[in-house]
User: Fold these one by one.
Assistant:
Number 1:
Amino acid sequence: MIEVQHYTKRFGPITAVNDLSFTVPPGTIFGLLGSNGAGKTTTIRALVGLTRPTSGTVRVQGFDVWREPVQAKAAFGYIPDRPYLYGKLTARELLRFVGQLYRVPGVEAEIERWLAVFRLAEFGNELLETYSHGMRQKVAIISALLPDPPVLIVDEPMVGLDPHAARQVRELFRTHADRGRTVLLTTHSLPLAEAVCDRIVVLDRGKVLGEGTMEELRAQTGTAAGGVDGD
Ligand code: ATP
């Protein structure tokens, strides 16, 4: 469950997000859709405790991210748009570390299962610094999903992924949501939002253009989702 109420963020004279409100109930994949500079990343960074709101509140699993950060942060997995992974570890070492930190049951078998899903098993003992961007993105996704968090927050998940991995990730998000979890993702891609998300907020230069299912958005404005990339 994610609740954003009257969230506004200003950077000096720039209003990056202006009075944004939305709720993501469990079992839902929710998309923040908008082109460059719309305010998607700024919103995500407020939700994961990285950029303090100018005003408004952001809650994860009922916890105010900025007043109850320990409880809120225990409830979500976060995948940034450019994930940083310590390059001197192998993928298996990193995933073991994450698994032990979060006390994941049967962690070795879980790691092997995930590496197989993303066709990474044969590279699992290579240092992460040798990985391509897409491979690192896959490891970041595995490390966020390994603890099975109630809420998954993902910035531009498909950028840099090959078609096989993109399909896997779409299915993983669906499975995660169907198990009663919450998924929030950002995208600039209208077809991706349409294919993956149950509900969408369309942002443009920090303002909300529309919110709802794709059908509702089309009915509201006809063009609420226009202006974002069609790739
Ligand atoms: P993109 O896909 O390009 O990342 P976005 O929708 O994620 O776009 P944001 O990165 O949230 O957009 O940026 C929204 C606005 O806030 C932009 O005008 C951006 O220049 C501005 N902005 C973001 N972070 C900062 C910052 N730290 N200082 C000043 N301005 C910022």
Number 2:
Amino acid sequence: MIEISQLQKKFDDVTVLESINFSVKKGEVVCLVGPSGSGKTTLLRCLNLLETPNQGTVQIGDKRVEFGSKRLSKKAIKDLRSYSGMVFQGFHLFPHKTVMENITEAPLTVKKASKAAVIEDGEKLLKKVGMIEHKDKYPDALSGGQQQRAAIARALMMNPDVMLFDEPTSALDPQLVGEVLRVIEELAKEGQTMVIVTHEMNFAKRVADKVLFMDGGYIVEEGPAKELLENPKEERTREFLQLLG
Ligand code: ADP
């Protein structure tokens, strides 16, 4: 489903990702873990071109984009983006739109589908994330956990092949974390392909097929979730996990 090879990303002269190689199979859940500043968010953003890598290739589905030599066409960027749905730390809902308006905006403008069909899809997804009774509310009337569940429904509306989550629970009060993680776990059970940046190690252990440990812009170690988190091979991974307790 996803194949990343020799990816490099610099901000000005500072290299923040180097020699990144990994793949994600259809239906697989991959968690990116590692210390703050190790490049996890930047890597996730490179997958849907919110950041443009300097070198390397990103293949998602049958779309392959090579970076480095020539400028990317708008079409290539749009094509690659259409494969993924992104959920951010800070929800990013439109404040002046209701939940239903938030989640139906993209399919109505991009897909040119009929309004009735889009609303029907929206209702199905809002039921799935436990938000149907809030469909006519505005974001500021919702808790952070409810806003994040609406944001997940919004990303799912475009039927993405892969869902990308950037620390989806780190802006939430602790008592709201569980409701969001449960929705993501449900998606995992349904076979949704996902790449998730997270600090929730117990969640990663439960949900991930594979965990990548990043440090200093490199993937230091990767492996099956339980194996890497309970029995890491690399010293740096061990130190990181010990610090978390
Ligand atoms: P993580 O998600 O692991 O905390 P990030 O991907 O956010 O790490 O950041 C990796 C490195 O890239 C950090 O040193 C950060 O300061 C730097 N960085 C991230 N975004 C930018 C940017 N837009 N401009 C310059 N430096 C950035």
